[in-house]
UniProtKB/TrEMBL annotation, chains A, B:
Pfam families: HrcA, HTH_DeoR. One of its GO terms (biological process) is negative regulation of DNA-templated transcription. One of its GO terms (molecular function) is DNA binding. It comes from the Bacteria. Belongs to the HrcA family. Keywords: Repressor, Stress response, Transcription, Transcription regulation. Residues 103-320 form the Heat-inducible transcription repressor HrcA C-terminal domain. Residues 34-60 form the HTH deoR-type domain. Negative regulator of class I heat shock genes (grpE-dnaK-dnaJ and groELS operons). Prevents heat-shock induction of these operons. This is Heat-inducible transcription repressor HrcA.
Amino acid sequence: MLDDRKLAVLRAIVEDYVSTNEPVGSKALADRHNLGVSPATIRNDMAALEEQGYIAQPHTSAGRVPTDKGYRLFVDRLSQIKPLSGAERRAIETFLAGAVDLDEIVMRTVRLLAQLTRQVAVVQYPSLTRSSVRHVEIVPIAERRVMLVLITNTGRVEQRMVDLPEAIADDRIANLRAVLNACLDGCGLSQVPETVADVPERLPAEDRPVAATILSVLLETLVERHEEKIAFAGTANLAAADFSVGLRGVLEALEEQVVLIRLLGETGGLSDITVRIGSENPYSGLRGTSIVAAGYGSGDRELARLGVLGPTRMDYPVTMGAVRAVARYVGQILAGS
Amino acid sequence: MLDDRKLAVLRAIVEDYVSTNEPVGSKALADRHNLGVSPATIRNDMAALEEQGYIAQPHTSAGRVPTDKGYRLFVDRLSQIKPLSGAERRAIETFLAGAVDLDEIVMRTVRLLAQLTRQVAVVQYPSLTRSSVRHVEIVPIAERRVMLVLITNTGRVEQRMVDLPEAIADDRIANLRAVLNACLDGCGLSQVPETVADVPERLPAEDRPVAATILSVLLETLVERHEEKIAFAGTANLAAADFSVGLRGVLEALEEQVVLIRLLGETGGLSDITVRIGSENPYSGLRGTSIVAAGYGSGDRELARLGVLGPTRMDYPVTMGAVRAVARYVGQILAGS
DNA sequence: CTTGGCACTCGGGAACACAGAGTGCCAGAG
DNA sequence: CTCTGGCACTCTGTGTTCCCGAGTGCCAAG
């Protein structure tokens, strides 16, 4: 159905269209790529490709433009991820290495990715659910109020005010803190609910009401924060791309974390790259927009995802290369901190 | 120089231009506002206003458009801040009340403001420098590594990894923590450097090297974080406004915190509203953009600023009303938490 | 000082023509 | 059966011209 030459033609169309942003015609193709055949032949192939929905013409007698289906084929079978240059790799390393805490790692990552791809970058904070408790801290704030601070092994810190049912002395707080930490240290967050059930038994009866309040807030924190946090950068690149169609939709999507998270998707292996092209993605505001995403994590566990959002006519090989590289480096940095 | 009628004409021009986004002519003015004079008279006044730089015409024989100077006069002398409707006030209250921690307060505030004004909203996190230490926590992470957590009375939490020069037992950490908190509790952040100087004396000699490392990181945290954190929302509103000119510049400014912070300004009394119009603001990418900002805080201290960023031709009375109201409510919420 | 009248200017939209790029199809060559 | 060159046809985008209308500035009269 699609012989090699037709595939070569499709590849050439995608490449040319991506670089020129203009419908590409048979003559231009024959000139720029040495396919060894005449424009007329190419026209025949184009007709076939159009027949099957890989390309389309904006108007009769304009050049051809790849369809979403065409890009899909290109990404799946016609392109190779393009690795970054040595200079770029070094730049990534030094740029990310300077970060001092999780917030800054995420911030730098997202900027880096935006700059590298000249598109909008999105980074999801490392998931709480897959990490474990490093430390729980209870800080007296007022007589009947404490701040609960939860520190995870991914460096994330969650904080919450708690109003207590009764005043409680500092040494009792200290005891409570000790017991909590003894129980929870190293405990996976998903195990916290069960693990925490033992806590009251280990406390003097008088402290149990207070403990119950604190524990319920702790559990609540875990549940609520399951809804993850996201950072993005590079929106200025949207204005540069002549992206005018859909700009609105993209900006809207960016402000809806829920949508954004679904867009990043939840998939397969670590550093496996997901590409969603135009209409393939589940949000109507993003017609004309593609998403290139990958998971990142330390060791072999995927902690969260990151990706890039740009016009369907983007340079997939380069973008995928950048996303993959950044995902790997972030994983390394997280593992080392 | 500018009699009352000329001022009235200027006001009418601003109002009409804001609502129609088209240059306004003498006839239209005479029709819509009952100024009690004929178009010809208005033309004379317009000539005078133009002479003095308050309005301009895009082309000979088009209507007039206010200049930055014209908006300035309008804001200073011709308009009154428009209070929010009761429904809006209630909406603010209920929307902000549900927030559980500082991050969420800021997040909700910025969304609220964006929605209320239909523009881009910016909120600066409560300043570290003007708050005080509530608690310092040192959490052992590995043998020679701890996490330093600083909690301020505004609910902000700063975290930092510290690599120690030597291993140290948990009880020595506990002692260090106790001493630190004894010294620093309630201490204004700006006093921390002096206060902290006493700490080593109160420790056994063997702990001083470790303490020195930790203290230096603590001080560093305070200095670096002086560069403040910012959140924004509502960029989708940019696309709606026919703002095409300068959209790029605005998006760029939003990604440069440094610029953004300078834009919010550092000014006068709490809930005092600052308006920077077009060329008045210190960043060239924002030609055509105005900023309406106010400080917010609990009690009488300004903790940080928030504001809105929109086209020079915005509805200043309404925008200022929204900014003022939100600033006040956030102040209340912060005071109460 | 205000007003009506008047001539003038200029931007923007409609109508039109035209060049150029690109297509589809066909008949002939390999 | 596939490729190629030729040819007629179809568009879009661009440039030109033209005209209308909104708006102005100025002037003379009330």
